[in-house]
């Protein structure tokens, strides 16, 4: 059952094209803020923020606040099967 729950997280995270792009982008860079991610994806900051919130709630992203900015990165504690799945798209 635990494996099924993990795979549900993987599929929810990657089921939207913009979320998939965010995960791929963050897998190739260390940390980025919402503005940089929005610019890279060419979507609004609001849409980007909504996707980041969902990815954070799913436990896919780590968040760090520094100097009044919020930086996002992939959660290093994500299961290896998630990481392997993401690498299929890179």
TrEMBL record:
<dbReference type="InterPro" id="IPR051081">
    <property type="entry name" value="HTH_MetalResp_TranReg"/>
</dbReference>
<keyword id="KW-0804">Transcription</keyword>
<dbReference type="Pfam" id="PF01022">
    <property type="entry name" value="HTH_5"/>
</dbReference>
<feature type="domain" description="HTH arsR-type">
    <location>
        <begin position="1"/>
        <end position="90"/>
    </location>
</feature>
<keyword id="KW-0238">DNA-binding</keyword>
<dbReference type="InterPro" id="IPR036390">
    <property type="entry name" value="WH_DNA-bd_sf"/>
</dbReference>
<dbReference type="InterPro" id="IPR036388">
    <property type="entry name" value="WH-like_DNA-bd_sf"/>
</dbReference>
<keyword id="KW-0805">Transcription regulation</keyword>
<dbReference type="GO" id="GO:0003677">
    <property type="term" value="F:DNA binding"/>
</dbReference>
<protein>
    <recommendedName>
        <fullName>HTH arsR-type domain-containing protein</fullName>
    </recommendedName>
</protein>
<dbReference type="GO" id="GO:0003700">
    <property type="term" value="F:DNA-binding transcription factor activity"/>
</dbReference>
<dbReference type="InterPro" id="IPR001845">
    <property type="entry name" value="HTH_ArsR_DNA-bd_dom"/>
</dbReference>
<dbReference type="InterPro" id="IPR011991">
    <property type="entry name" value="ArsR-like_HTH"/>
</dbReference>
